[in-house]
From TrEMBL:
CDD domains: trans_reg_C. Residues 134-232 form the OmpR/PhoB-type domain. The keyword Transcription applies. Pfam families: Response_reg, Trans_reg_C. Keywords: DNA-binding, Phosphoprotein, Transcription, Transcription regulation, Two-component regulatory system. It comes from Brevundimonas nasdae. This is Response regulator transcription factor. Residues 134-232 bind DNA. SMART domains: REC (SM00448), Trans_reg_C (SM00862). PROSITE patterns: OMPR_PHOB, RESPONSE_REGULATORY.
Length: 238
């Protein structure tokens, strides 16, 4: 007889007790289990105490900056992070995604939207998204492990990828060498309201991680009036 699947564990990190409790109650009503932390130190203790499937992270914490905590989570594991904060400036969104966040929501927020975004991130990071031609996509000496969301460079080193990096690279790879418009990138992004400047910056950052010459890019090419495309063939393997 099949065993029931355990509900995902969400770690809520926020220094406001009322918000922590409200979030926990709402998320538990939607089938999640929750753990709560008021600051960076208790967040680290919770991560060490047991497995966590996703972190909902505030940026304004009393002991450590939330962006630094996001980077520390990303450096130590592939646990997805959704930033939930009162800092809603577009540059904060960009920096948060570049630090490795998988999504970014500004307060005040709609609780039902947060639940939807959590489920979307969990599906994507658990490998439960669209079927793929294979587990690995090889291109120009690089290899992207779709299920593990891991990028291996031609020299064998593991290149760090934020959630936004993975989404963009995965979309370019799956687009089969055809131009991908900014509007399409926006639709595939976890941040639907990203403007053209934010998308261009995201492409620029990904080029840097791939060692692609910004003045004469060979891997991610700009197609005038159309968007961006991954140059060269992609080979899929198990």
């Amino acid at each position: 007889m099949p065993q029931p699947v355990a509900a995902p564990v969400l770690l809520i990190v926020d220094d406001d007790r009322d918000i922590r409790n409200l979030l926990a109650d709402h998320l538990e009503q939607h089938g999640f289990r929750t753990v709560k932390a008021a600051d960076g130190r208790s967040m680290q203790a919770a991560l060490e105490a047991g497995p966590v499937d996703l972190v909902v992270l505030d940026l304004n914490l009393p002991d450590q900056d939330g962006l630094s905590l996001c980077r520390s989570i990303r450096d130590a594991s592939r646990t997805p992070v959704i930033i939930l904060t009162a800092r809603g400036d577009p540059i904060d969104r960009i920096v948060g995604l570049e630090m490795g966040a998988d999504d970014y929501m500004a307060k005040p927020f709609e609780p039902r939207e947060l639940v939807a975004r959590i489920r979307t991130v969990l599906r994507r990071t658990s490998g439960g998204s669209d079927p793929v031609e294979g587990r690995h996509a090889d291109f120009s000496g690089w290899s992207l492990d779709i299920a593990a969301r891991a990028l291996t460079a031609p020299d064998g080193r593991l290149a760090p990828l934020s959630g936004a990096d993975f989404d963009l690279l995965n979309a370019l790879i799956r687009n089969g060498g055809k131009p991908l418009s900014r509007e399409r990138i926006r639709a595939l992004s976890t941040v639907a309201d990203a403007d053209d400047r934010a998308i261009d910056l995201r492409v620029s950052r990904l080029r840097q991680k791939l060692g692609d010459d910004a003045k004469n890019p060979a891997l991610i090419r700009t197609v005038r009036s159309l968007g961006y495309m991954l140059a060269g063939p992609v080979t899929w393997r198990a």
